[in-house]
Amino acid sequence: MEQTTANLMRRLVRSPVPPPSLTPARALRLAMVRAAERSINLHLAVLGVSEDSGPLDDLLSRLEDGLLMIALYEGAEPVGLIALDAEARAAAIEVQTLGKLLPSSPETRAVTAADAALARPLLAAFLSEMQTAVEGTSLAGWTRNPRLTARLPGAREAAMLLADGAYRVVRLTLDLGAGERQGLALAMIRLPGMTKSAAESKPADATVAEQVMGAQATLTAVLHRISLPLSDAEALEVGQVLALPGVTVASVRIEAGGVDLGPGRLGQVAGMRAVRIEQPLAPYLEEIPALGDQPSDTESEPPMIMGGMDWDS
């Protein structure tokens, strides 16, 4: 009896066992589960987490096909991308539009701007949760509050946007909770210590630089996009007038390779139609305003035009 009492007393005064340390994989699992539930009420599980690092070109060459990719910026500098595969993208859309997941996988189709808009809440929440969850792990400091900007059409556009250097990519295999449907989410962000100025300080081959800078870049000025039933589109004929509701001279968007670069304003210079760039071109996608938000009654003054030019709105 005395021995039992002594053992009990030793247990009572023994220092508490510290909780097990949080691993990077578990931190990422928690971040994704919380982000999905809190942002779009999607209940999922993370089946697996993988991590890899290496040169930008190497990682981009191994990206899966058909990803919805959105560029990540820190300040004015692109630092990486975040992406969903077709299954995860469809799940984010279905739970917000239908209130539930369909039992079968969706048909393969191209990524649209609407897909990106519906996926943004989940991706933004994952970045925020990950920033907090990885503190105290080997991933601490890897993400530095990056923000979502424009959708990237593919790996080629990502290679043109991002600076060379070392990047880390994490992949999360998702159990979407509907039958056997599984999806993929990934984030590829530049490793700390590799800054843009450091990348630019490397001497470049003059011949290669001339070829790259001499490559043709096509800018497209988009005034409006309209969706029509196929029957109406086939019935279009020369001379028919199409209404463009809400379109003004300031409705122009400048695009390159499917990426929205910024706003423009339609006008005239020397008697010819022209588009004035209203802001420095940068791939940035503004948040969709909440219902009930009213636009400002005042607009900023347009920038001055160089002397000798006539600008007619």
Folded structure, characterized:
This protein is an alpha+beta fold and 313 residues long. Among the domains are: 24-194, Chemotaxis protein chec, CATH 3.40.1550; 247-280, no CATH class. It contains nine helices and ten strands. It has helices spanning 2-13, 24-40, 56-61, 86-97, 113-133, 155-161, 196-200, 206-213, 230-234; strands spanning 45-55, 68-74, 77-84, 147-152, 166-175, 182-190, 220-222, 252-256, 259-269, 272-277. The protein has a six-stranded antiparallel sheet. A four-stranded antiparallel sheet has the order 7-8-9-10, with no helix packed on it. Helix 2 (24-40) packs across helix 5 (113-133) and helix 4 (86-97) packs across helix 5 (113-133). The protein is globular.
Summarize the structure.
The chain has 313 residues and is an alpha+beta fold.
Task: Please name the defining characteristics of this protein.
single chain; Chemotaxis protein chec; alpha+beta; 24% strand; 313 residues; four-stranded antiparallel beta sheet
The gyration radius over C-alpha positions equals 25 Å
Say how many strands there are: 10
Proportion of beta-strand residues: 15-25%
Biggest sheet record: 6 strands, antiparallel
Termini Cα gap: 97 Å
Give me the CATH superfamily of the domain at 24-194.
Answer: CheC-like
| Order of neighbouring strands in the sheet with most strands | 1-5-6-3-2-4
Q: State the share of residues found in helices, binned by percent.
A: 25-40%
Output mean pLDDT. Answer: 80
